Amino acid sequence: MYEIEMNVNAAIDMPEEKLQSEKSSMTRRITTYLRWVGSILIIVSAISFMLQGHEDIVPAYRYWIGLGFTLLLCAGGMICAYLFRETKGARIFFGLGAAFLPVQVSQVSAMIYGYWHGKAALQPAYSWLQFMNVSPTIITLDFFITAALLVLVGYASYAILARKHLYTLLYTSIAANALLLLPIRDGDMIAVIIAGLFVVLRRSELRLHRDLAMRLAEGMAARALMSLPLWIIIGRSMLYPTSYWLTIVLSATVVMYCIYDINHYTQSDFIRYICQWLGTIAAINIWLQCAGQLGCLNDDNFSVFLPIAVILFGLSARVNFYPRFYRFIASALVVFLSLDAMIEQQSLAPVLAIAAGTLLTISGIRYREKMPFFCGNVCVVSGFLFYWEYAINIYTATPWISSIVLGLLVILLASYIESKDRLIMAKMRYYFNQLKQWN
After folding, report:
1. Does 83 lie in the same domain as 209?
2. Residues 55, 176: one domain?
3. CA dihedral defined by 15, 20, 26, 27, rounded to 10 degrees?
4. What is the span of the domain harbouring residue 425?
């Protein structure tokens, strides 16, 4: 009797529990939308101020307005954490505050650069990005305020986002912002800074990525904040005259992020598809920049494009979409360039054709694809046929010796075939059947 009453009560209470669950779910959705809207409004407002609100403001005041904006975000985080006892809003506010810190650092860097170089300083075309005629006292004050905020706000932000890796994130972020602070705008030196900072950040990224907690939203936000100074340096370098090395470094950065590391950040097929083609274009651009610097593009020699086939083959092992298409284009390109080089009677053309054909054949066997396999065979055969003229000259120069050697080889070949005919036929049938199953 008691069990029956319990079952009846459970049946009565179930709709109410379900209703409470639905209300809670609706509340979470509404608050999530509100947080997204608020964050977007804050970011858009800050960008609007950066683009439009600097026209009539003294450069020294631009920093103070941004400083007040950063402190206001931190105050919002404190209200959420200690007054509302709510951590999601606090994480958002402190995350946005930490995101605006590199902007403050970049402004101080512009002040130092303008004061250091004076009238010889390279200035961007936009007046709201020029921080000239700021007194050394104000620059020193802004420098110490920024350094203090970088430690305090960075500590609070990373502690609330990823406490387990707090010091790794904090030290790396401070080091990256210190490089952002350097008053350097020369294209070659900026290329060295970007390359070094990219290597350091990528090593930290790969180490943090091994922790499953760092793949959640909070961990991803902390990793993005750590890398933000790099992207500011890259964006700032676009405002000044570029150099050959800067172009190479930026292209290599795009390749690494869009081809090798994109799976660490998103599983969206659309984003990975777009990034794959961006990375492919950047990889090809690296070689074109090198070839242009060496003056190879001015020649009529098509073999200068052979490294593009190597690049496509290398990328085919890393891309998420159409790896066979990459190998197809690379194989066809190798055949065309090899035949063109041999037609032009280039000295090393047959040797390179045989070597490239061997590698293509091995790749075809490894990936079980017909196109690289057949293209490799064509290159190898073409390379050996190139020496057919030399074989004919040797035969005509010493006909008797050549005939004896050729006759001896023919008889040995016939004997080998007759003794191994079943094994040879079985192997041929096996390989042909395997080849039919390839892509």
Report:
1. yes
2. yes
3. 170
4. 398-439
